[in-house]
Amino acid sequence: MSSMTMAKHLAPLAGINRSIHTREVNYPHDPGDLNRCLKLLAAVPELRPHIKAMKAVHPVWAGLVARWDELESTLAEESKRGDRAPKTYDLMRSIIEECEVKS
Asked: b or e along 71-83 (b: 16 or more beta carbons within 10 Å of the residue's beta carbon)?
């Protein structure tokens, strides 16, 4: 659902006229969710330049996007080693918890 949220909000900014029907706002909760978002960005590279627009969607999205490069590189490093991405998970949880406390 997090990648659907991303597609819904970024597609119009990228000039992609595709109607995505979802009313829910979801953010990635774990490395699997994050990986699906990264796969979306790889499949539709026109979306990547607009990733910062996700900050306006939800406070947790703002926190995740602020550290997106770090999240992406941590996940990539763990994936190379075949890890289950515990560092990425811990990083995500700390960002999400911090954002939830603020909101």
From this structure: bbebbeebeeeee
Range(s) of the domain holding residue 47: 2-102
Q: Could you identify the residue written with the tokens 């990986």?
A: 35
CA distances from 54 to 37, 57, 78, 85, 97 (A): 12, 5, 25, 23, 18
DSSP character for 30?
Answer: S
When divided into structural domains, the chain yields a total of 1
Both tokens of residue 86? 């515990």
Q: What would the pLDDT profile of 55-88 be if each residue is shown by its tens digit?
A: 999 999 999 999 999 999 999 999 988 778 999 9
